[in-house]
């Protein structure tokens, strides 16, 4: 969470093409890590799939604008978790963030198995 919030605060120090996706990619990484913590006995591919589904559902929920959910979004925590408006680029960023985590975890497990 700290990295994600810092990416917004210090955006002026990063190239624009990174700023566009970094916060959303880091949010997806956080979701992946949380899912991995909860499902630590599962395969990384399942954790990645469930994380992607969660991120995609949150993004799709941004198409729905009832007064009650917009009131939640207007709080700091609600805005950070639920977001405000649907963007296809967010879907790309979530996929990239979780893809990177899946690759890292796969390499880790591959190297661990190779040593055994």
Structural domain tally: 1
Largest sheet: none
How do the SSEs run, as a string of H and E? HHHHHH
Strands, count: 0
Backbone structural class: mainly alpha
The overall pLDDT, averaged over residues, is 86
* pLDDT < 50 stretches: none
Give the distance, in angstroms, between the N- and C-terminal Cα atoms. Answer: 35 Å
Query: What is the 3D shape?
Result: globular
Q: Strand portion, in percent?
A: under 5%
Number of helical regions: 6
> What's the gyration radius in Å?
16 Å
Helix content: over 70%
Architecture overview:
The chain has 116 residues and is mostly helical. The protein has one domain (2-115). It has helices at 2-9, 16-38, 44-61, 67-73, 76-82, 88-115. The protein is globular and about 55 Å long.
Core attributes:
about 120 residues
Walk me through the topology:
Layout: H1 2-9, H2 16-38, H3 44-61, H4 67-73, H5 76-82, H6 88-115
Summarize the structure.
With 116 residues, this protein is an all-alpha fold. It contains six helices and no strands.
